[in-house]
Amino acid sequence: MNLAARILRLAGWTVSVTVPDMPKCIYCVAPHTSNVDFILGELAIRSVGRRAGFLMKKSWFFWPLGPIFRAMGGVPVDRRPGSPSLVEALVERFRSSQVLRVAITPEGTRSRTTRWHTGFLRIAMAAHVPIVLGVLDFGTKTIMLNDTYAPTGDIDADIRVIKRYYSPYQGKYPEKFTTADSE
Question: 101 near 24, Cβ under 8 Å?
Fold first, then answer.
């Protein structure tokens, strides 16, 4: 058992992974209600001998964290109007890479939101990569990578299916997580 697996076990977490390791994929991870989610996700993926890059708000890439996050596979996201298209950049990165796994939180925030981001669906479609559905369930203290999703191209229908998938799970702060279409 590696160090990451030991840390999770000592903290009372269980990791369940049935999806095979793939050279290219998007890990769609939810619920995302806390900064602790990042640490748990990193520990979980490493506990099973895998690695994944991740998207993170550009403002987190300051010294000394920036070089550390980049070394871990972090991709800074600039959300300002007029910024280059993240979707296009990631599609190109998938096309030019032999191995690329990126974790994305569809909520795009730790705050409660009904408006989930859909860029990961567009990236998966354009780059022809599978989406692995990752769960951080604080209700059962279980982290799972047990299902994949193949987007249909109907973004609205796809996001509804994905929200339904995540509806039984609980974030660290349950009041900050919703799979509703609107409130």
Answer: yes
Q: At what angle are helices 155-166 and 119-127 packed, to 10 degrees?
A: 110
Helix, strand, or coil (residue 132): strand
Q: Which domains does the chain have, with CATH numbers?
A: 3-169 (3.40.50)
Q: Report how far residue 36's alpha carbon sits from residue 2's, in angstroms, rounded to the nearest whole number.
A: 20
Identify the pLDDT of residue 155.
Answer: 97
Band (75; pLDDT cuts 50, 70, 90):
confident
pTM: 0.89
What residue ranges in 14-169 does DSSP mark as E strands? 14-17, 24-30, 53-57, 74-77, 100-104, 131-137, 142-149
**Parallel, antiparallel, or unpaired: how do β-strands 131-137 and 142-149 relate?**
antiparallel
